[in-house]
Design brief:
The protein has about 325 residues and is an alpha+beta fold. The protein has helices at about 5-10, 45-60, 70-75, 90-95, 125-130, 150-160, 165-175, 200-215, 225-230, 295-315; strands at about 15-25, 25-35, 40, 185, 200, 215-220, 220, 260, 270, 275-280, 285-290. It has a six-stranded antiparallel sheet, with helices on both faces. The protein has a three-stranded antiparallel sheet with strand order 3-5-4. Strands 6-7 form a two-stranded antiparallel ribbon. The longest helix has 17 residues, at about 295-315. The mean pLDDT is about 95.
Length: about 325
């Protein structure tokens, strides 16, 4: 396929893409590097999708279920005066960003005056901090993007397995995919950071996307349960504000278990701060991975559809 139209539009629109890698039918179709080296870097919130894959693996091993409650697993971190509504929260509520908060928690970066981000927290135990925050909504009732959700899941996995999450995932996910010695940021207590922080190259990122496209299988080995993955990448909750028309934006087309839906081509994607995108399009048996420093996610997706997916439609 011809990647030049994509590169031309990226330059014309001044979108901050660093790398793009396109695979179709499990073969490299095209790539373009605006930076000379594809080094490992933070995929930010796309790491949440890897947390979801970890949950799927853990469910298959009988470690937890969608109904497991974080207050039961992490009870020693509960403040004395915690909101008892927390006891209703389940793993599924966390995976769908429906913990019951009506605002974001634990942002990594905040441009909102007075908004406390993770760097501002005096409480080094992020789980204790999360449980100290009251719930304004019924758990499961509404999508509200929230970085506490993936971190609670990461710490639940650590408590249930006795290993830091990155170490538990090495033989189960990273090593089978040939991602050797991965790095992942930690919280102040040294635990794998749930909201983000996984460091991979664009090519390694593409392996995670390809795993999803293959229904959780890799080289004939089932890494993640196909049933779980089908649920994880399907629309589980509405994420469009009521004032925005549905099927008008790929950022509000529905949300699965830490996976975003596209409104076109029945696709889905992993998404991280600054334009880290792992797009999976089963209809075309293809994946598209971007590393970027660009905050107009919809503009990136539009260019991809106009210059790459449009070619697939004719082949």
């Amino acid at each position: 396929m011809d990647i030049v139209p994509f590169a031309e539009q990226i330059c014309q629109k001044r979108l901050g893409v660093h790398h793009i890698l396109v695979k179709r039918k499990n073969k490299l179709a095209a790539s373009f590097h605006f930076h000379p080296t594809d080094r490992r870097s933070d995929i930010h919130s796309a790491s949440k999708s890897v947390i979801s894959l970890a949950v799927g693996i853990a469910m298959e091993e009988g470690i937890l279920t969608l109904d497991t409650r974080p207050t039961e697993v992490l009870n020693k971190h509960l403040p004395e005066d915690y909101d008892k509504t927390w006891e209703q929260v389940t793993v599924k509520n966390l995976l769908t960003m429906a913990s019951g908060h009506d605002h974001k928690l634990m942002d990594g970066y905040s441009l909102i005056p007075g908004q406390i981000n993770r760097d501002d927290l005096e409480d080094k135990d992020w789980i204790h901090y999360a449980f100290s925050q009251p719930l304004q909504l019924a758990p499961g009732s509404r999508f509200v993007y929230n970085n506490a959700c993936p971190h609670i899941l990461s710490r639940m996995m650590i408590a249930l397995t006795g290993e830091n999450l990155i170490d538990w995932l090495r033989p189960r996910l990273f090593e089978p995919l040939g991602i050797r010695n991965p790095q992942w940021y930690t919280d102040p207590l040294g635990y794998t950071c749930g909201p983000g922080g996984l460091q991979v190259t664009t090519e390694e990122f593409s392996r995670l996307a390809q795993l999803c496209l293959e229904g959780g299988a890799w080289n004939g080995r089932q890494i993640v349960s196909r049933k779980y993955l089908e649920e994880a990448v399907s629309k589980q909750i509405e994420n469009a504000p009521t004032e925005i028309p549905r099927n008008s934006s790929d950022t509000t087309a529905g949300y699965g278990y830490f996976f975003w839906r596209t409104y076109r081509a029945d696709g889905y994607y992993m998404s991280g701060w600054g334009g880290q995108l792992g797009i999976v399009l089963p209809e075309y048996d293809g994946i598209i991975c971007l590393k970027s420093y660009e905050f107009d996610t919809q503009a990136l997706l539009d260019v991809i559809w106009e210059t790459i997916v449009s070619q697939w439609k004719t082949n």
